[in-house]
Amino acid sequence: MLHIQENIKYILQRIEKACIANNRDPQEVQLLLATKTVPAARIRLAIEAGQTLLGENKIQEIKEKYDDLLDLKPTNHFIGHLQTNKIKDILKYDVTCIHSIDRLDLATKLHQRLTSKNKTMEVLIQVNTSNEESKFGIAPEDALALIQEVAQLDTLRIKGLMTIGLFSADEAQIRPCFQLLKNIQQQAKELHLPNVEMKELSMGMSGDLEIAIAEGATIVRVGTAIFGERLYPDSYYWNENK
Ligand SMILES: *Cc1c(COP(=O)(O)O)cnc(C)c1O
Question: Among 117, 147, 205, 230, fewest CB within 10 Å belongs to which?
């Protein structure tokens, strides 16, 4: 239990340091706890330590932990790959933001479902900035077109962009991913689309949050550095099919 609290403290220090080093207000950067594989009892400790923004990768995991955490009123975001056949389920668990909108058919089906429920949803457009085939996200060159199309679906409130940086120890390879996302954000802002805010940049994880903050992250998604190593490779959790 102490570990989780200590780890959170340390992550908040890292965020603060990175903000100060880049002339940013630490208030501009939200910490999202990436809680895949973490049991509800451990997530509870993190929430009790003051962290209320959670992100899961699989509907099944939200479902399993939902009731156990309900009394703490966390804010639930969805950060995993979303299959269209799971849209119905995601609306059952008051997820307030989906970070992983990466194709029009997904956005359209989500819009249809939301329309029938008379609901709206905040979304981020996920961009595959590292161009790795194994990763989800719209190709950078197609991102603006997708943003314009999704902007026409009035139940979806586009709040910004999300990316997973290149897995590398080489900063010189990671940084361009985040710069690219920022760049797409600027271009999208210049379109002045109705229904599009383009305020959030969800980027940076345990290993690269300092670089992401330097490049403008407003949400960093941290799992390992708070909860410890996971048993399964991340690719397993990025595919809702499995
Ligand atoms: C697991 C995960 C994270 C957190 O990664 P860590 O390296 O454990 O901090 C962030 N974003 C997404 C989409 C994830 O699946």
Answer: 117
123 touches 159 (CB < 8 A): yes
Could you report the per-residue pLDDT of 184-225, keeping only the tens digit for each? 999 999 999 988 999 999 999 999 999 999 999 999 999 999
Domain boundaries, the chain: 29-228
81 close to ligand 1 (CB < 6 Angstrom): no
Residue nearest to atom 2 of ligand 1 (CA): 34
Q: Which atom of ligand 1 is nearest to the CA of 80?
A: 13
Determine whether the shortest distance from the Cβ of 196 to ligand 1 is under 6 A: no
Longest dimension (CA), the chain: 47
Distance from the CA of 49 to the center of ligand 1, in angstroms? 20
Q: What is the pLDDT of residue 169?
A: 82
Check: pTM over 0.90? Answer yes or no.
yes
163 vs 161: CA distance, rounded Å? 7
Does any ligand 1 atom lie closer than 6 A to the CB of residue 227? no
